[in-house]
Structures are given as C-alpha cells and as structure tokens.
C-alpha cells in the first residue's frame, strides 16, 4: 500500500472540514470528557472522514481511534491504524491559536511504520503543513519534499508538557537545572513529538521549531504513535522512565480499552543516561 496516497487524501479532504469549523469557531459546541479533555462535533466528523478514506485503501482495516471508543482490532490482521482527528482540541477552539493537528499512524506488529501529522494553519502565513514519515525508506516528507533531517542541529529546548497546576517532574527539573529551555504548557503532543524528531522552523514560525527532548507522563497512544514514527526514523530513543523501550507495543497493551504509556522519554541516545539518573 502507498501510505503517502492515503495521507495526502486525508489532508486534502479534512482541510475543508477544518476550515469550515474554524471560520465559525465561536458557535462550536464544546463538551468536556471524563479525562478533562475536550470534544467537539469537528473531532467526530473529521474522524469519520478519516476512517472512510482509510477503508477505501484497506477494506479490513483495524482501528484504534480517540473519539467514540472506536476500537476494531482483529488479531489476524497485523496492521492497525491509530487516529487522533484533532490533537490539540483546546487550541483548535481558540481563534488565534494554530497549534493543533490531525495525526494518523500505522502500526505493524506493534511497530509504527508510517505516519502523518497534518497542521492546517501552522505553516508560514497560516498555510497548511503535511508531514509524512515512512519507516521502510526512512523518509520524512514535508509538503511533498524530502526533509534532510541529518542537517537538523540541537536546540537546547525540551517539551515536558503536564497538566496545569501539576508539579514539575524530576526529569523537567534536571533539564531546567542544566540550562535547557522547557515548554511545559500542553498544546499538541503529536506536534511536539514531530518537533523533537525534526526542526520545522523552515516550515512554521508558530511556537518552538525544535526540541532535543520530549517527556510526557500518561502518553495516550493516539497522540503518541504518529510522532514516535518520526523519532524512530531519525534515530532517537523512545523509552519509559524505567529504561524500557516503548515500541514495539505489545498485543496486550494494544488490546486495552485505553492504551496509555505511564511515561515516555524521547531523546538522543547520549541524553538518555543523563535524564534517567534522577529516576533511579
């Protein structure tokens, strides 16, 4: 299957829906879910559209999706599509905030093998940005062009987003004490993971362009898988605070009602030991 064709069609067709709701955002009804995240009609409509497109290419598709408890996992099918229709729903509902995206990842035997992160307004002059990751060829494609991630330099910045009012983690404290600029305000986990894999400054001037480190407690699978695919391609390590590899995901983890990793650290291999020290 040419995943790039699926991702391009999702981006093309969801962009119109994103624009429809953003142009009338003040009238969008917002629900607060049990986990205190937001749900809107836009989330549900966009997810339905994504599922419809995927089924054109993969008639027997398995799904793990955020909204409306969409879980279709047949153990005979090794491929699972993981969908977050709007990652960053709160920014999506704020007229002047652009840090939201549509994130889709593909798992094969628990390993992220392809992903898209589509940012409808984060490009220069509010243009859209489509980032695609393909593990087989180790390619990252931004708006149709190959991105040379070997040239991305380190930034001395990190994303350690956490719930408002919560205390800093030990890892966040280590980063701050070592002079790293830390972003701890939650926007979109998928976008922050993308910015950990590559420097997107050439494509977007919204927020930080690049992070050396990503840390998150209770990382949900749908806003984790797409960004993990990008980071796996560029060679960053993806572990938990016990030093265990997070990917590939196990079958028992994927069969949970809500697959959530207790913790996720994404960093260069030479950064991991320093970050793990305070957790021992």
List strands and helices in order, with pairings.
Elements (H helix, E strand, L loop, with lengths): L2 H20 L7 E3 L5 E3 H17 L4 E4 L5 E2 L6 E9 L1 H5 L7 E8 L2 E9 L9 E6 L4 E4 L2 E2 L10 E3 L10 H8 L3 E3 L5 H9 L15 E8 L4 H10 L2 E3 L11 H4 L5 E8 L1 H8 L4
Parallel strand pairs: 3-5, 11-12, 11-13
Antiparallel strand pairs: 1-2, 3-4, 5-6, 6-7, 7-8, 8-9, 9-10, 13-15, 14-15
Proportion of beta-strand residues: 25-35%
Radius of gyration from the alpha-carbon trace, in angstroms: 18 Å
CATH class of the largest domain: Alpha Beta
Looking across the biggest beta sheet, what order are the strands in? 4-3-5-6-7-8-9-10
Provide a brief overview of the structure:
With 280 residues, the chain is an alpha+beta fold.
Q: Care to describe what's here?
A:
The chain is of the alpha+beta class and 280 residues long. 29% of the residues lie in helices and 27% in strands. Helix 1 (3-22) packs antiparallel against helix 2 (41-57) and helix 5 (189-197) packs parallel to helix 6 (225-234). It is globular and about 45 Å long. The chain starts with a helix and ends with a helix.
Q: What labels would you give this structure?
A:
15 strands, 280 residues, five-stranded mixed β-sheet, 8 helices, Fructose-1,6-Bisphosphatase, Chain A, domain 1, 2 domains, D-Maltodextrin-Binding Protein, domain 2
